[in-house]
């Protein structure tokens, strides 16, 4: 069914009451397993909203279209995740001129849409993030950017409608010149966004465009309404329900973790909270490989170790392969001053890393099952093997006005895909011992002049406000890294004269394969933090990473 945004609640007075009664909050956005609401049916939402964006040439109008699928109804306490979330931003021709004037011929966009979630008088906020592949600047007319990504899960804590409303929007643009190199550095007018030039840290010029919902936006940005439970919501301003059926009104025990979306202030244990979406359950430590330094790999004063896990799509097979928790040994670099900027203090850091599994630079073996050509079940056992050391480039920018920081990180990893075993429709095929991709998985690098060759590129951004927990990805605390790769042709597959290269290449190889990796909190070997009543653990007693992350779709 198609659902148009419903009429918005009355503005300021209701919002003031919501703030005053948020101590009895009845909405929780949590890191839960994404599930489909038990009530049947979905509603498809397509909202077109006017925005005003701050660009170097001034305040310009923009059109933002948000599309997503929501359940038609949900039960109290039942988590669901809006799916198929797409954010389309149409920037006017003047914005194209701004970017072209900085030497850009193409841009890669990442969006961060602030979404308000409310139930009765309780409110919470979530960050809907999306990414896109590079697009060329049009010769004339507007610039259209389409981003897609996963969003946090949501659960209503009592009876009443859950409403989702779009708020502020940030667009992070990575700029590239016609030859693929970073354009020259330029300085934006004060208050019109932030940008940085090329350098070893980020590898490209960048521009952050901040957009605000226009005052005449229909429904004040309302995207969707999901009824929860069987009753009706409490009247605006009345006391919120005490909690799910069978529970008391006691405060929650949980605390937002270091990567939760920041809240303006912590008002009570029952205030709404937003955490990164981490579906599933972390594996037991007995089920993951050891991750420690040894005599063959002695640690230094800057040594870190961490577990990483995630999913990698295989576009041709319309499925995803689960990458189990893998150990990574990291040598953290020393920050050096970046390019001068009157508004920011900039530092660049280059670190290096290697997978560590049974003394090899590879992941543990992992299995994946697909339907080849839409009908034949194929089961493969594979590993990702390094052909060289992984490089991690981070650029931190600290604002000279409010001391907030953003950190852009690019991980460049030369990884070949090695197939160990293959089974088609229940029949084993002997692929031999040398069945692998001809080259590393390949991503489009934002700075190919400085980073030539075949390698995978994963990107993450971290943000930190004074007095607030960090959000996004930071090397030390971990988080989500994402990218897109081309799977090269296969070689060396088959034995006894049987050539399986073409079979694997035809069914697997090709572009457009999305990769989402989650890195856990690192353990700093020289200064380990062990779990205690006052501290979350970062290291086990034998100096392994304390946190085992959970993969995200």
Structure commentary:
- With 553 residues, this protein is mostly beta strands.
- It is built from three helices and 32 strands.
- The protein has helices spanning 12-20, 93-100, 501-508; strands at residues 2-3, 27-28, 42-55, 58-71, 79-80, 83-91, 106-119, 122-131, 135-136, 143-148, 154-156, 160-176, 194-196, 205-213, 222-228, 303-314, 319-331, 336-337, 344-355, 366-372, 376-386, 390-399, 405-413, 415-424, 427-429, 436-437, 456-464, 471-472, 479-487, 490-491, 510-519, 523-524.
- The strands form five sheets. Strands 1, 3, 4, 6, 7, 8, 9, 10, 12, 13, 14 and 15 form a twelve-stranded mixed sheet that branches.
- A hairpin with a 2-residue loop joins β3 and β4 (58-71).
- The longest helix has 9 residues, at 12-20.
- It is globular and about 70 Å long.
- The two termini are 25 Å apart.
């Amino acid at each position: 069914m198609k659902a148009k945004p419903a009429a918005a609640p009355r503005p300021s007075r209701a919002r003031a009451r919501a703030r005053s009664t948020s101590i009895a909050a009845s909405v929780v956005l949590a890191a839960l397993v994404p599930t489909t609401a038990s009530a049947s049916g979905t509603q498809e939402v397509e909202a077109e909203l006017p925005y005003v964006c701050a660009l170097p040439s001034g305040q310009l109008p923009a059109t933002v279209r948000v599309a997503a699928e929501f359940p038609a109804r949900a039960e109290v306490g039942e988590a669901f995740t809006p799916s198929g979330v797409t954010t389309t931003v149409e920037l006017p021709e003047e914005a194209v001129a701004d970017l072209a004037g900085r030497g850009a011929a193409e841009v890669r966009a990442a969006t961060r849409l602030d979404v308000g979630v409310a139930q009765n008088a309780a409110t919470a906020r979530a960050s809907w993030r999306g990414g896109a592949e590079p697009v060329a600047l049009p010769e004339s007319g507007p610039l259209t950017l389409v981003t897609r990504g996963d969003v946090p899960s949501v659960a209503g804590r009592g009876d009443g409608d859950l409403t989702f409303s779009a708020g502020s929007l940030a667009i992070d643009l990575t700029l590239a010149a016609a030859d693929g190199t970073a354009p020259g550095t330029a300085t934006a007018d004060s208050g019109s966004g932030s940008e940085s030039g090329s350098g070893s840290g980020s590898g490209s010029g960048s521009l952050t465009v901040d957009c605000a919902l226009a005052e005449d936006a229909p429904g004040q940005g309302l995207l969707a309404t999901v009824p929860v439970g069987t009753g009706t919501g409490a009247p605006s301003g009345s006391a919120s329900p005490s909690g799910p059926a069978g529970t008391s009104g006691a405060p929650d025990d949980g605390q937002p973790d270091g990567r939760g979306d920041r809240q303006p202030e912590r008002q009570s244990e029952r205030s709404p909270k937003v955490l990164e979406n981490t579906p599933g359950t972390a594996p037991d430590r007995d089920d993951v490989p050891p991750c420690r330094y040894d005599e063959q790999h002695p640690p230094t004063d800057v040594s870190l170790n961490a577990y990483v896990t995630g999913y990698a799509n295989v576009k041709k097979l319309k499925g995803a392969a689960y990458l189990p928790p893998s150990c990574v040994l990291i040598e953290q670099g020393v920050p050096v001053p970046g390019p001068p900027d009157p508004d920011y203090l900039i530092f660049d850091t280059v670190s290096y890393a290697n997978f560590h599994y049974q003394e090899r630079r590879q992941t543990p073996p992992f299995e994946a099952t697909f339907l080849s050509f839409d009908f034949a079940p194929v089961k493969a056992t594979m590993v990702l093997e390094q052909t060289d050391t992984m490089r991690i480039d981070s650029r931190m920018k600290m604002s000279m006005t409010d001391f907030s920081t953003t950190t852009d990180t690019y991980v460049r990893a030369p990884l070949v895909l090695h197939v160990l075993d293959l089974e088609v429709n229940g029949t084993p095929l002997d692929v031999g011992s040398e069945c692998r991709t001809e080259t590393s998985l390949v991503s489009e690098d934002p700075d190919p002049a400085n980073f030539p060759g075949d390698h995978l590129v994963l990107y993450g951004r971290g943000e930190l406000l004074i007095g607030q927990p960090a959000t996004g990805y930071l090397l030390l605390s971990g988080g989500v890294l994402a990218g897109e790769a081309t799977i090269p042709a296969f070689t060396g597959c088959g034995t006894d004269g049987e050539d399986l290269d073409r079979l694997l290449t035809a069914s697997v190889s090709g572009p457009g394969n999305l990769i989402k990796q989650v890195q856990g909190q690192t353990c700093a070997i020289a200064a380990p933090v062990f779990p205690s009543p006052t501290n979350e653990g970062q290291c086990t007693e034998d100096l392994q990473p304390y946190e085992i992350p959970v993969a995200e779709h």
